[in-house]
Design goal:
Elements: H1 2-22, H2 28-37, E1 40-44, H3 48-53, E2 60-61, H4 62-65, H5 69-72, E3 80-84, H6 93-102, E4 107-110, H7 114-120
Parallel strand pairs: 1-2, 1-3, 3-4
């Protein structure tokens, strides 16, 4: 039992570490301020159903924009772009981050808490 739990912990830690290194993280407080200031373009990669159920205010539904991501991103390639998914152990955010980088954006970050961390912190969500 202890070996199994240790293996699960190590596997989960490795997964989180692998996702955390590719793009810089933005802290919860930094994202909260960016939401308040409307100074970031936020991309939700949780799928359209999850997006409708509750998202970080102002977030874009990556599933809906798909190949038209460029049309919803700012003209300034140095603008802050933040991608997030479901939780710290989720790596789906990387699809949106990678798509933004391929479009030439240079300030792409990852909110590792995901929507679960946002909600757990008691932050408001948008629905619909």
């Amino acid at each position: 039992m202890k070996k199994t739990l240790l293996l699960l912990f190590v596997t989960a830690f490795a997964a989180v570490s692998a996702f955390a290194g590719k793009y810089p993280s933005i802290s919860h407080d930094e994202l909260k301020q960016a939401v308040a200031d409307k100074s970031a373009t936020i991309i939700d990669v949780n799928g359209s159903e999850s997006y409708k159920a509750g998202r970080i205010p102002g977030a874009i539904d990556f599933g809906s924009v798909g190949r038209d991501l460029a049309s919803v991103l700012p003209a300034d390639k140095g603008a802050l772009i933040v991608a997030y998914c479901g939780s710290p152990s989720c790596g789906a955010y990387a699809r949106a981050a990678e798509a933004a980088v391929k479009l030439g954006y240079t300030n792409v970050k990852h909110y590792s808490g995901g929507i679960s961390g946002w909600k757990e912190a008691g932050e408001p969500t948008e629905k619909g």
